[in-house]
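Document type: protein sequence-to-structure record

Subject area: structural biology

Format: plain text, a pair of labelled lines:
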Amino acid sequence: MTVAQYKTSSRVGRTKIGKVRVEAAHAKSPMKFLRRLATSESGNVGLIAAASVVPLLALIGGGLDMSRNYMARTQLQAACDAGALAGRRAMGTTGTYGSAEKAKADAFFDANFDSQSVNASNVWFETEANDQGQVNGTASAIVPTVVMQMFGNENFDIEITCMAELQLANADVMFVLDTTGSMAGSRITGLREAVKDFHKTINQAVTDPNTRIRYGFVPYSMTVNAKDLFSDPDAPMQRSWFVDSAPYQSRQAQFNTPVYIATTGAPSTVNETYSTTLSSSNCNAYANNNYPSSGSNPSSSGNAPGNVTQRTYALVSWTGGTATRKNCTRSVTTRVTTHQTKFAFTNWRYKEVELDTSNFKNGTGVNVGTSVVTATANSVINPAVTTYADQAGYYDMVTMAKRNGSGLYNVGLTSTTWNGCIEERDTDDTANWNPIPSSAYDLNLDYVPDSNETRWRPMWNQLTYNRSFRQLVDSTTNEPLAYSACPSPMKPFTEVELSSDPNDVPAWLNTYVNALVPTGNTYHDIGMIWGGRLSSSNGPFQANVNKDDKPVSRHLLFMSDGQMEPYIWGYNAYSIESLANRVAPFNSDTTAVKNRHNSRFAATCEAVKAKGITVWVIAFGTTLSNEMKACSSDGRAYYASDTAALRNQFKFIASQVANLRLGS
């Protein structure tokens, strides 16, 4: 084959033939070959290709071996982590780290490291525990190279470390629990037991006596109950955080029916003698005011509201004169009655009324006017019985009681005491909650009240009435009070006693959950608002949340057995929604109001999660809705079909809260 023939061959052929021809020429005459090579271009491609083989082989082979090294290192790290976790979990049961615990760690390491897949040798794994309750592990292995052996690198020596510890160093868990009417019966019983199961799981997971676990509770339905927050020493709710007056969907009593109160003066008596002598019969008639003309005894003149004069007649003497005709004398006693115009009850006017809450919010009994004794217009009343006013006008039920005996009289009173349930502070009726409007103070979890707009209102269900969509209603009858429901009181974060008995439940926790009462309709947003508020490290209750300034993980467990179910005719945290229109505009139907509450719920969930609080959601016997799923943190939303499943879900979440974690 000639050189010309080589040039016309294929690229592969050229390389192979070129190598042969070069070697042959070099063998016959090295100097001649070199001179020819210096002036010839025919073999350069082959030489360059040949010279590139070694570095390309090193580059590709190095990448391949490094990939195998990475795979082996990753698998070894995962196995080390699994072994350390298993050892720490075993240590949590016994409280010590001995041979049995190490054996469990070794078993998990062996199960997670497949030495044959990476042809590893000299595999070694060792664990030990330290004084902080951590399990530290070290693992090593030798992995041979495949390509890099040709360059003198025969093995990779891999060594890694791992550590496992309890995540549950300190934890605060806020339970936001749906305690609406549908939770009655076996469901509320199951919920009580589920909370106890949660604690038992936590109790079993903690071995460090310095660990602090706290639980808080927000039972919710149509509102929440703040009653116990006032007396809690760690989370004192201030009475000044509530308004001194607020508008309520209530009623006023109109006193505009004129009536009169009679006042009779002292009697005055004079004697009158008839001008001529009279017979005995005529004298008796005269003494009875029936002579010389017919009259009455007593006699009366004048009418209310003017003076009324009453005269009473009596025989004094029939003396002198003849046997048949004598002088006749009678006495006349006069009494003058004056009249004062007063105003009796006319009707109730049902409307929005500003009520004085300054005493009611303190939790003491406050009298309110609830009943009246009516009278006919322009009648003279018995002032000891009939309800009346000195001045005509409208009087709310609080004022009726305050002024009873001074300006108002004979008002029927009822003592009312605040049950602790609240109306929320000012909000916005917008449909857009991204971002949350600045005027929606109810969704501002951290704002400490400093104005009437930012203060809460005590619910006054004894004075709240429905009237459909009407602005006002006049009626002489007592309309029924609006439907309302007040759940069990909330509880701020409270430390629970941990016990060596895995089934032990603290007395206070047992008492609290057993007292949960199902009532009312479902308002998820009010529950989440207060769950977030009581969990916020920057809000009104930060003294409780940040107590002792301990590092802590915070969790909120939200459980409901139903979807959002507002009742626009009922009295809830936003008053009567068909009348107050605090959440949705006037004339909004139930669907529109429900959509607004769902939007508020979603916005609140995001606000809570933004505070670093992990949100867990359980749908109990109801659809796990998109709103519930979105509310949870990273898909931590679960479904429980019955009470047994609910208890298991609570135990599962507790195990996740108390789960081990890998340390660095």
Observations:
- The radius of gyration is 47 Å.
- The CA atoms of residues 488 and 516 lie 6 Å apart.
- Residues 245-419+472-480 form one domain.
